[in-house]
Design goal:
Layout (H helix, E strand, L loop, with lengths): L1 E2 L2 E5 L2 E5 L13 E3 L12 H24 L6 H15 L2 E2 L18 E4 L2 E3 L13 E10 L2 E10 L6 H19 L7 H14 L8 E5 L6 E5 L16 E4 L2 E3 L5 E3 L6 E3 L5 E3 L2 E4 L6 E2 L5
Antiparallel strand pairs: 1-10, 2-3, 2-4, 5-8, 6-8, 7-15, 8-9, 10-11, 10-12, 12-17, 13-16, 14-15, 17-18
Helix pairs in contact: 1-2, 3-4
């Protein structure tokens, strides 16, 4: 997830930067990112989109393999090493291993984000052994042949998931689908944000807008930022050939996070569990094209 630089305007309050707490009590329709006022969103030709397909397929296939491998007794470091092995075999490059944004304590150093239970985003792999019932999110982004794809999924390790875990994952998946369906030429960027937020809020969750989706192309985080809530009909007009990573994420009973002592992993402040899903999507005149679709 990328920082969104969100501002929230209300008739009864001053603007707030970072709106997770603010949105718990104020209207989402006053939400927009500051960057939308000056962003230039790249558009890619049909030829370029064809060049992006291999990296999308690779990311989707690797996540499917990791999902099957994430069983009780496997460690997060083993999952990271499997992902690293697949990157080397494909001649790809990790978008994470040298990634060092302002919110990270150091270069990430791994190729896979592994967020377990109360870890919401940017989970730094360590020697944790997965247990039956763990809620695990895997986020994976690579460059292949000069183009980036980024995707994430959430699974319950081992046995039967609890009703609350099932509901959390299902809501994230439904929000992702709703956002993807708005990635059509002629719409507005805010339509994607609004669709995600509407599904999430209807299910009773509070939406954190500090981190969200983003443009994807030659690099992992490009314009625009895409908050997971917002006002329909607002923002830049969508045009065919724009490529976005759309990524809803939710925590069960809060919208607030803190940074773990590893300097990277964002965790829920109340210990509640989290889900995170993502696809790289091409805006088209018709049905949006999901580059990272999994089998």
């Amino acid at each position: 997830c990328a920082p969104t630089d969100v501002v929230c305007l209300s008739p009864v309050a001053e603007p707030h930067i970072g709106t997770s707490h603010y949105l718990a009590t104020h209207w989402a329709q006053h939400l927009y990112p500051l960057s939308w006022s000056h962003t230039m969103i790249p558009r890619h030709s049909a030829k370029t989109i064809e060049e992006m397909r291999p990296v999308g397929s690779f990311v989707g296939a690797t996540l499917s393999e990791l999902q099957q491998h994430a069983t009780p007794g496997v460690t997060l470091l083993e999952l990271d090493e499997l992902a690293h092995q697949r990157i080397r075999e494909a001649g790809a490059e990790s978008c994470y291993i040298d990634y060092h944004p302002s919110f990270g304590a150091s270069p990430f150093g791994k190729v896979l984000c592994t967020s377990v239970n109360d870890a919401a985003l940017h989970g730094l792999p360590y020697d944790y052994t997965l247990k039956d019932g763990d809620l695990l999110s895997l986020d994976f982004a690579v460059t292949l042949n000069g183009w980036v794809a980024d995707s994430a999924l959430t699974l319950v390790v081992g046995g039967t998931p609890t009703p609350s875990d099932t509901r959390l994952i299902d809501t994230c998946e439904k929000a992702l689908h709703a956002g993807i369906q708005k990635a059509r030429a002629g719409g507005r960027l805010g339509d994607i944000s609004h669709a995600i937020g509407e599904v999430s809020r209807a299910a009773g969750y509070v939406v954190n807008t500090d981190f969200g989706g983003h443009g994807v192309g030659r690099t992992m985080h490009e314009d625009p930022s895409i908050p997971n809530d917002g006002e329909a009909g607002q923002g830049p007009k969508l045009k065919a050939g724009m490529v976005f990573a759309i990524e809803p994420w939710l925590m069960e009973t809060t919208a607030e996070v803190y940074t773990d002592s590893d300097g990277w992993t964002l965790k829920s402040v109340d210990g509640s569990r989290s889900a995170h899903v993502e696809h790289t999507v091409v805006v088209t005149e018709g049905e949006p094209l999901v580059l990272t679709k999994r089998a």
